[in-house]
Design brief:
elongated, 7% strand, 15 helices, single chain, 65% helix
Length: 407
């Protein structure tokens, strides 16, 4: 291969193969080297029944260097901007050959099938894709564990107990899967590991469904309140509660990822010809579950943003409460963004900005809202501009002081 590298992708990650210096240079030039992991091509020959000539190709490729990288939105964008990879005959797998690995333009060479190409046998690509799927699930599970540590640091004792009570339903599942994963790491018998875990997936799904219903309830809580004082209380409760349910969902996904790794081991051993289709099915199921959670958290944020608009439009009489609403909404949004990171989902929402009291006093819309609410509060109509200003100053005094002296 010389200075060339060969790249295969399943859409979620890439394997880069070539001489050690070329692979490292390719990854390092793009800032990817520190996130890449070794990829053992020899395992394909061990796990799949492939012809002897394919084993020779794999042996030759394995004598070089192969590294796996789980794609981030940024690295995926770089690949697309380079022209994208070419589809192969194996569904869901793309490929390219790159010359001059130090070339920052990263333009692909035309790929020709040949004895040194990984494309010579669909079984090789299917096996590589199966291994890539397992590495992606391992990386995701690792990131979810780090997320759980981060969430735990933000929960008070009451919320931790609440989270632990829910997760207790999965204690048996957790023990069984973690035991099987430990056995796998020590090259234990894979079928024995699979026999231990195969009946446990339903419990994870049940707890995940409960967590989604809890997030729906938080969404309803955000939608029920119309006045700023009530919104402040509701959004603060949502802020404290959402961490509990994001932690539960993260734990569910971590266990589902580890379950998927063991499931693919089972398919490697028992139905290698079905490996690629099964891999695609697992990925589709994971994507569907992610989609449901993204939809539910998206609905929650939409309702909270509506509440934020109400708070921002009623600063004169509720500066302190308005700021509390905005702060809680932004905290919830940040927690959801952190939750999405392991799934390579980029945040698409900007934090809400509070409106200063001194700016609100110059806003006719804010003045009208304050006048309308003041009229309702005292049960009398506003008689003129003088009464309007007097009412705003009288009732907004404490709120003004609470907004960091910004009047």
């Amino acid at each position: 291969m010389g200075d060339e590298v060969e790249i295969i992708s399943d859409g979620e990650g890439i394997v880069v193969n070539g001489s050690q210096s070329a692979v490292q240079r390719f990854l390092d030039d793009r800032g990817w080297l520190s996130d890449a992991r070794p990829f053992d091509l020899n395992r394909i020959g061990k796990d799949l029944n492939v012809a002897s000539d394919i084993l020779d190709v794999l042996s030759e490729a394995a004598d070089q260097s192969s590294m796996y990288l789980k794609l981030t939105p940024e690295s995926a964008k770089q690949l697309r901007e380079a022209g994208g990879l070419m589809k192969t005959k194996t569904k869901g797998i793309s490929h390219a050959m790159l010359g001059k690995t130090g070339d920052a333009s990263m333009k692909w060479l035309q790929v020709q099938d040949g004895p040194t190409s990984l494309l010579t046998n669909p079984a090789v690509l299917s096996g590589a894709a199966g291994m890539m799927a397992q590495l992606a699930r391992q990386q995701e599970a690792k990131e979810l564990k780090q997320l759980l540590i981060s969430i735990d640091g933000k929960l008070d004792d009451v919320r931790r107990r609440q989270r632990d009570e829910v997760l207790a339903k999965m204690d048996r599942v957790s023990f069984v899967i973690e035991d099987a994963m430990t056995s796998r790491e020590h090259d234990g018998d894979r079928e024995t590991a699979w026999d231990k875990v195969k009946a446990e997936v339903g419990t994870i799904a049940e707890v995940q469904a409960d967590a989604l219903r809890a997030i729906e309830a938080l969404t309803d809580k955000a939608a029920d309140k119309k006045r700023v004082g009530a919104l402040a209380k509701a959004t603060q409760e949502i802020e404290s509660e959402v961490g509990v349910w994001l932690a539960v969902l993260a734990r569910c996904f971590q266990l589902q990822n580890e379950y998927a790794i063991l499931e693919l081991d089972h398919v490697f051993d028992t139905a290698p010809l079905s490996l690629n289709g099964h891999r695609l099915g697992i990925d589709a199921a994971l994507q569907e579950r992610r989609g449901k959670i993204i939809a539910k958290t998206g609905q929650l944020m939409n309702k909270l943003d509506v509440a934020g608009d109400v708070a921002r439009e009623n600063v004169l009489l509720h500066a302190r409460a308005s700021r509390a609403v905005i702060n809680s909404i932004n905290a919830v949004g940040s927690s959801i963004d952190d939750f999405n990171v392991p799934f390579a989902i980029e945040p698409d929402r900007e934090a809400l900005e509070p409106i200063r009291w001194r700016d609100a006093i110059r806003d006719s819309h804010q003045l009208k809202n304050a006048a309308d609410e003041a009229a309702l509060d005292v049960g009398a109509a506003i008689l003129g501009a003088g009464v309007l200003v007097a009412t705003v100053v009288l009732k907004g005094g404490d709120s003004k002081d609470s907004s960091d002296g910004q009047a």
